[in-house]
Amino acid sequence: MSMRVRFAPSPTGSLHLGGVRTALYNFLLAKKNGGAFVIRVEDTDLERNQQGAENNQLADLAWLGIEADEGPNNPGDYGPYYQSKRQDIYQQHAETLVKEGKAFYCFLTDAELDALHSHENRQLKSPYRDTSLEEAQAKIDAGESCVIRFKNNWDDRVFQFDDLVHGTTELAGDMVGDFVLIRSNKQPVYNFCCAVDDHLMAISHVLRGEEHLSNTLRQLMIYDAFGWDIPQFGHLSMILGANRKKLSKRDDAVSVKDFVSSGYLPQAILNYVALLGWSHSDGEEKFTLDEMISSFTLDRVNKSPAMFDRDKLNWLNHYHLNQYRSEEVAQALQDISSSPLLNDTVWFEQFWTLIGHQFHTLLEVNDTLAFFEQHEIRDKELLLGEGRDVVTTFQGILSNESNYSEEAFLSAMKATGEQMGVKGKRLFAPIRVALIGIQSGMELKVIGALMTKDQVLERINAALLVG
Ligand code: GLU
Q1: 19: which DSSP letter?
Q2: Looking at ligand 1, which residue's alpha carbon is closest to its atom 7?
Q3: Of 16, 58, 68, 23, whose CA–CA distance to 274 is shortest?
Q4: What does 396-453 look like in DSSP terms, one character per residue?
Q5: pLDDT per residue as tens digits for the range 76-127
Q6: Which is catalytic among the residues 32, 249, 312, 445?
Q7: Distance 373 CA to ligand 1 centre (A)
Q8: Where is the motif ('HIGH' region) (predicted)?
Q9: What residues are paired with 37 via a beta bridge?
Q10: Are 56 and 36 in contact (CB under 8 A)?
């Protein structure tokens, strides 16, 4: 049987780091082994579904470069790939279990359920679990509301499986009660849909976060009731935030959308996420997606929690950004920037060649571009007294320069220093303020190279008016 894995997002919000990792590891596993990577949208929780969330999540995955072999946008032989379009399948399967006595109609009201929970200190065993089908049918015909529950007869059984990450894992059957398969509004619940779909979609490996471990127990019971073979399960460890608590959407900006707006590249995010719980056998940390595919193995997936470390993400983003050619950077910047300088390919290439190496994120690139677009004098006080004289002298020398170049700019500065008897900061800071508004932050020779003589003189004129 060939390998088939899936990523099964619920459209209840945006795609976060944990989801990216689950998607990536499944994707790498499939690609490494010539298998299929399937996307299935688990949208049966009507109350929690958010309008448009699935399309946003699918777009985020595509932006990252994680493309499905089968899924909502490219259906294969196992569709539909939205659970909301598979309701009949779940209903039919639930009825099969009811007929076989492995599930039952349960008529407990919410109040009765609450009363049972407060009286009994164990998982629910419904009083309707042995009600005959005829009796149940009569109640349904009389208009009574009911759910379909799984009949959990496994209080004394321990379910054992060989977890792909954690090894032999045991889950006691009495950790759950008679759990719901189909709600009273006919909506099936996640655990039921998931087990039915993983079986019908011939999923061979289920790799997901360890928060699903208790679901795995319910799903094992469902597989067992149908007599189906179980897939190989693997549960990925938690991702912790800087405070060593589970990474929280509130404390850390960790959605793909946040990463895009903060200027991270898809390659860097994937590279970073790959290392959140997996390591290369020879310690290598920088990879392209193809390199990750060829080196990914489950035996190097770590059991212990991973720590989100923004410095490391920045380091990897710096690395991948520096692999980009200037036109690729300009293209990537379109997501967050509307700078007209991106369209000036010659200028932008020079900019990138001169200072590209210093940036960690596209946001930093964009902030630096702003210096060449706007001219806001922030450190005004440096354009008073001696500073003003320095700038005026520099202006005079430079305007007499007939062949403007970076060298001419630098020699005009040197001549200014000699003429005024100043050097170092006393010379550089006022000129920098006149040209980019602040006293430090960009090398003067870079400014000289990236501005024309007219721009330099225009900026000096404007600055002297403000200062
Ligand atoms: N829909 C579930 C979630 O978003 C996925 C569970 C699974 O992978 O089985 O958490």
Answers
A1: H
A2: 8
A3: 23
A4: HHHHT-SS--HHHHHHHHHHHHHHHT--THHHHHHHHHHHHSSSSSS-HHHHHHHS-H
A5: 999 999 999 999 999 999 999 999 999 999 999 999 998 888 776 678 999 9
A6: 249
A7: 46
A8: 9-19
A9: 5
A10: no
- 219 C-beta closer than 6 A to ligand 1: no
Burial 150-189 (b: 16+ CB within 10 A, else e): bbbebeeeebebebbbbeebebebeebbbbbbbbeeebbb
State CA 356 to chain mean position distance.
25
Ligand 1, from 4, 48, 193, 212: best to mutate by most atoms within 8 Å of Cβ? 212
At a CB cut-off of 8 Å and minimum separation 6, what does 185 contact? none
The DSSP bridge partners found for residue 82 are 41
Ligand 1 site-directed mutation target among 61, 194, 238, most atoms within 8 Å of CB:
194
In ligand 1, the atom with minimum distance to the C-alpha of 190 is: 1
Instruction: Tell me the backbone φ, ψ of residue 4, rounded to 5 degrees.
Output: -135, 125
Residue labelled with tokens 């369209």: 343
Residue 19 has pLDDT above 70, yes or no: yes
- Rounded to an integer, what distance in angstroms lies between the CA atom of residue 121 and that of residue 48? 29
Q: What is the pLDDT of residues 144-190, one digit of tens each?
A: 999 999 999 999 999 999 999 999 999 999 999 999 999 999 999 99
Give the rounded distance of the alpha carbon of 292 from its chain centre. Answer: 17
What's the token pair of residue 380?
A: 């005004």
The token duo for 418 is 């000699």
Domains of the chain: 4-70+194-238 (3.40.50.620), 87-182 (3.90.800.10), 375-466 (1.10.10.350)
Q: Which two tokens stand for residue 114?
A: 């609450």
Q: How far apart are CA 316 and CA 74, in angstroms?
A: 32
Length of the chain: 467
Hey, is 188 helix, strand or coil?
strand
- Structure confidence by residue, pLDDT tens digits, 251-265: 667 899 999 999 999
How distant is the alpha carbon of residue 103 from its chain centre? 38
Residue reference for tokens 């060989």? 162
249 is catalytic: yes
- Buried-exposed string 365-375: b where 16+ CB fall within 10 A, e elsewhere: bbebbebbeeb
Annotated binding site for ATP: 249
Written as one string, the DSSP assignment of 227-256 is: TPPP-EEEEEPPEE-TTSSBP-TTTS--BH
Could you write out the DSSP letters of every residue in 299-338? GGB-SSPEE--HHHHHHHHHHHHHHS-HHHHHHHHTTT--
Confirm or reject: Cβ of 231 under 6 Å from ligand 1.
no
Q: Summarize the confidence of residues 18-33 as an average pLDDT.
A: 97
Q: Which atom in ligand 1 lies closest to the alpha carbon of residue 19?
A: 4
